[in-house]
Specification:
Layout: H1 3-22, E1 29-34, H2 42-58, E2 63-68, H3 79-85, E3 90-93, H4 117-128, H5 133-139, E4 144-151, E5 156-159, E6 175-177, H6 182-189, E7 193-195, H7 202-208, E8 213-216, H8 218-223, E9 232-234, E10 243-249, H9 250-255, H10 258-292, E11 296-298, H11 302-325, H12 330-343
Parallel strand pairs: 1-2, 1-3, 6-7, 6-8, 9-11
Antiparallel strand pairs: 3-10, 4-10, 5-8, 5-9
Helix pairs in contact: 2-10, 4-10, 4-12, 6-11, 11-12
């Protein structure tokens, strides 16, 4: 941002602070934020709580965000409709949970495209920015605007089976929890059976044997208290990931005063940019927790990695082709995302 733009931004927020400090009689703006995560989840600690705090501080208490976790306002698949209807103002909206409505954003969830989480997240922000291809083709038509958007670290195969995981071939035929969307293609591509269950149900499903394991980030294993159930996992793989958004309804957004929009946008952008570093650090810590608990970590050799890369390329091509045949710009979005990845530094 140039000097003049920084000054103008400073004047904007200074002016807002002055107005809010003097207009003590004005009612604060209250926004309801709903998610499907259990209370205390790492996304709660690293993203939701800092966002609520940042917005309150920047607005001098004149924007209040009320948090409704653990599906209190509705199921994870229904959050986009709750946001559009105004039941919730901001929703934890995962494209993989509603791939029928947000299929194109799953481009960032495909395996093997970027080198680091930060590089992939920067590319996702670029193609989802105001007026960019995902904004035009997906978010605006669905009546939402992402305030926070980022990627989790690459997913690993997490197994509860007592069968030792020495090769990717050992997972063939196993029932594996996936969040849906593009990761279903990845699961099928390596020979597993993708099963969809909501996050609060993963523990019970693995404990009962309904699931043999899951494609998850390590930190989700610890967040869902799955460590005692896990016997083995991959390390250093890229089975795709999930794109996460906290999105506000466009009707609600357009009804907010410009200064409130500016505060929400700045707080969301700051946290979106910080997310990859926060979650990469949490992933490293969670991996050490699993190792200390005796979980066997399997890393592919060169031949197996080459096989996976070939499979991943086919998965990406199939994903784009399926969308193209549905009249969606799958190939154009994949090309735009690849270009954004190439332009982003692999931090």
């Amino acid at each position: 941002m140039g000097l003049m733009r920084r000054r103008l931004a400073g004047w904007t927020f200074a002016g807002l602070a002055a107005v809010m400090a003097t207009a003590a009689h004005a009612d604060p703006i209250t926004l309801r934020l709903a998610d499907s995560l259990p209370s205390g989840h790492i996304i709660d600690r690293l993203m939701i709580e800092p966002f609520i705090k940042a917005v309150a501080e920047k607005s001098h208490g004149q924007i209040v965000i009320q948090h409704y976790p653990a599906e209190q306002l509705g199921k994870s698949r229904d959050l986009i409709m709750l946001v559009k209807s105004g039941t919730a103002d901001i929703g934890f909206i995962l494209p993989s949970y509603i791939s029928d409505r947000l299929p194109l954003t799953a481009v960032a969830e495909l395996p093997g495209i970027f080198q680091t989480t930060c590089q992939g997240s920067a590319a996702l922000r670029a193609v989802a920015a105001d007026g960019a291809i995902l904004d035009r083709e997906e978010f605006q038509p669905n009546g939402i605007k992402p305030l926070i958007i980022f990627l989790m670290p690459p997913y690993q195969m997490i197994l509860s089976s007592h069968r030792q995981l020495n090769s990717i071939k050992d997972v063939e035929g196993l029932k594996i929890r996936t969040p849906g969307g593009a990761i279903d293609l990845t699961a099928l591509g390596i020979g597993t059976v993708p099963i969809h269950v909501a996050p609060p149900e993963i523990y019970e499903s693995i404990a009962r044997g309904t699931l043999d394991g899951a494609l998850l980030a390590y930190q989700s294993v610890t967040a869902y208290h799955l460590t005692p159930l896990i016997k083995s996992a991959t390390i250093g793989e890229d089975f795709g990931t999930v794109a996460i958004t906290f999105s506000i309804g466009l009707d609600k957004w357009n009804a907010l005063p410009p200064d409130a929009q500016a505060i929400l946008k700045e707080a969301g952008q700051d946290l979106s940019e910080q997310a990859c570093g926060k979650f990469d650090a949490a992933e490293d810590a969670s991996r050490e927790t699993l190792k200390a608990a005796g979980v066997h970590l399997m890393q592919s050799g060169d031949a197996e990695r080459a096989m996976l890369n070939t499979s991943f390329e086919a998965i990406r091509a199939e994903w784009a082709d399926r969308l193209d045949r549905r009249g969606k710009p799958g190939s154009r979005v994949l090309s735009a995302f690849r270009e954004a990845v190439a332009a982003a530094k692999p931090q």
